[in-house]
C-alpha cells in the first residue's frame, strides 16, 4: 500500500537539545494516527516538523512522494499539509466564509464561492457563514478551523489537541462526527492528545512517545494486548503492577509463586501487569493485603488493595480489583491470580 506520509530516522535539535530522536513511522492514505505521551515528550514538535515550521537536523519526511530532508527543506505552504491548532487560530476580523476562503487564493472567484459553499454545507455551517469567530461556540469554531484546513485539499491534516477545548459532554459526539468526515474524504491525519481514550475513539493507529522517541507504534488494540514496555502499559493504564522476581524459573510475587519460562535477568527489578479481570478476591484474615480504597462503579465495587508491610521489596502499593462482594476499609482479603498470558516488564 502506498504511504501518504513516511518519516524516516528524524532528528530534531532545538537550542542544542535533542528534542526528537530517530523517529520513524508511516501512514497509508486515509489512516488517522493518535500521538500520545507525557507532557514535553515532543508531540507538538513532531507535528511542527512535519508541517515545516521546525527544521529537522537529519532524517527524511516523505509527503505523498515528495522527499524533504535537512538539505532540502520545503516551505510549509508547499507541503500540502493542513494544520488545526489547539486554539483554532481563526482570523478574528474575518467572517466564517472569509476564514474558510483564506487558503483558496489560487482559485477563481467563482470556484472559490462553490468550494466554500460546499464546505459550509459539509460542516453544517451554512447558518453561520457571515458571523465572526467570537460569535461562535467552541464546537462551531472547531468546525470552521476544520473547513479552513481542508479547503485547499491537503494531502495530510495535522491536529494539535483538537478536542481539548470542547465541552466533555459534546466531545465524544464531535470526535465520531469528525472521524466520519475524515474517512469520507479519505484524509490522512495525525492528532496530538493527552487523553488515551480519545485515541480509541478517533484513531486507527497510535504512537506512544517518551522523551523524543516513539516507544511503540501500532493499532490501539494491538498496543493494549501487547504493550512492549512498562512505560507503554503504564501510560495506557492497562492494569496494576505487582512487583515480582524470577528465581530459578519461578515467578514470585507477594501473592503467589508459579512456574514461568521468561528470560528475565534476576538483577532487574520487574513488575507483573495484572488486569482486574485476572484477579478474584475473598475475605481472609491471614492475608497481608487489605482494602485501602472503595468506590462504586458500573462493574461492581472497585477496591484498591495495599500490602500491610510496605517495606517488603515485593510490597503492593495499589492493586485494582472489581468484585460484587462487600468489603469495608481495612478488611483483609486474599487475592488469586487467574492464569493468563503473563506480561512482565523491567521497571524503570
Ligand atoms: N522552540 C523551542 N526551543 C527550545 N526548546 C523547545 C522549543 N519548543 C519546544 N521545546 C522543548 O521541546 C520539548 C518538547 O516540547 P513539545 O511541545 O513538542 O512537547 P509536547 O509533547 O507537545 O508537550 P505538551 O503535551 O505539554 O504539549 C520540551 O522540552 C520543550 O521545552
TrEMBL record:
Domain ABC transporter: 5-236
InterPro entries, per database record: AAA+_ATPase, ABC_SmlMolc_Importer, ABC_transporter-like_ATP-bd, ABC_transporter-like_CS, ABC_transpr_FbpC, Mo/tungstate-bd_C_term_dom, P-loop_NTPase
One GO-annotated biological process of the protein: quaternary ammonium group transport
CDD domains: ABC_Carb_Solutes_like
Keyword annotations of the record: ATP-binding, Cell membrane, Ion transport, Iron, Iron transport, Membrane, Nucleotide-binding, Transport
One GO term describing the cellular component: membrane
Record-linked SMART domains: AAA (SM00382)
Keyword DNA-binding: no
Molecular function GO terms recorded: ABC-type ferric iron transporter activity; ATP binding; ATP hydrolysis activity
Protein name in UniProt: ABC transporter ATP-binding protein
Species this chain originates from: Thalassotalea algicola
Classification lineage: Bacteria, Pseudomonadati, Pseudomonadota, Gammaproteobacteria, Alteromonadales
Amino acid at each position: 500500500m502506498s504511504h501518504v506520509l513516511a518519516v524516516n530516522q528524524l532528528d530534531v535539535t532545538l537550542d542544542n537539545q535533542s528534542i526528537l530522536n530517530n523517529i520513524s513511522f508511516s501512514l497509508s492514505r486515509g489512516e488517522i494516527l493518535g500521538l500520545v505521551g507525557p507532557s514535553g515528550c515532543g508531540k507538538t514538535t513532531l507535528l511542527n516538523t512535519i508541517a515545516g515550521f521546525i527544521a529537522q537536523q537529519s532524517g527524511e519526511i516523505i509527503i505523498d512522494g515528495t522527499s524533504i530532508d535537512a538539505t532540502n527543506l520545503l516551505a510549509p505552504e508547499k507541503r500540502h499539509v493542513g494544520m488545526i491548532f489547539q486554539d483554532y487560530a481563526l482570523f478574528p476580523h474575518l467572517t466564517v466564509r472569509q476564514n474558510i476562503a483564506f487558503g483558496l487564493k489560487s482559485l477563481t472567484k467563482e470556484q472559490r464561492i462553490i468550494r466554500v459553499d460546499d464546505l459550509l454545507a459539509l460542516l453544517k455551517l451554512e447558518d453561520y457563514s457571515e458571523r465572526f469567530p467570537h460569535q461562535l461556540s467552541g464546537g462551531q469554531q472547531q468546525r470552521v478551523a476544520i473547513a479552513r484546513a481542508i479547503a485547499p485539499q491537503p494531502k495530510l491534516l495535522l491536529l494539535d489537541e483538537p478536542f481539548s477545548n470542547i465541552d466533555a459532554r459534546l466531545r465524544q459526539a464531535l470526535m465520531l462526527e469528525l472521524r466520519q468526515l475524515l474517512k469520507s474524504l479519505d484524509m490522512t491525519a495525525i492528532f496530538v492528545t493527552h487523553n488515551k481514550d480519545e485515541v480509541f475513539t478517533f484513531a486507527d493507529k497510535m504512537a506512544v512517545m517518551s522523551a523524543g522517541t516513539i516507544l511503540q507504534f501500532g493499532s490501539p488494540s494491538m498496543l493494549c494486548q501487547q504493550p512492549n514496555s512498562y512505560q507503554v502499559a503504564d501510560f495506557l493504564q492497562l492494569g496494576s503492577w505487582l512487583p515480582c522476581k524470577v528465581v530459578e524459573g519461578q515467578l514470585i510475587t507477594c501473592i503467589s509463586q508459579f512456574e514461568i519460562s521468561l528470560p528475565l535477568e534476576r538483577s532487574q527489578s520487574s513488575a507483573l501487569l495484572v488486569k482486574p479481570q485476572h484477579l478474584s478476591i475473598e475475605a481472609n484474615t491471614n492475608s497481608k493485603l487489605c482494602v485501602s480504597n472503595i468506590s462504586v462503579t458500573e462493574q461492581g465495587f472497585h477496591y484498591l488493595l495495599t500490602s500491610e508491610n510496605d517495606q517488603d521489596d515485593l510490597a503492593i502499593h495499589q492493586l485494582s480489583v472489581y468484585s460484587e462482594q462487600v468489603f469495608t476499609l481495612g478488611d483483609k482479603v486474599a487475592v488469586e491470580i487467574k492464569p493468563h498470558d503473563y506480561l512482565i516488564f523491567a521497571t524503570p
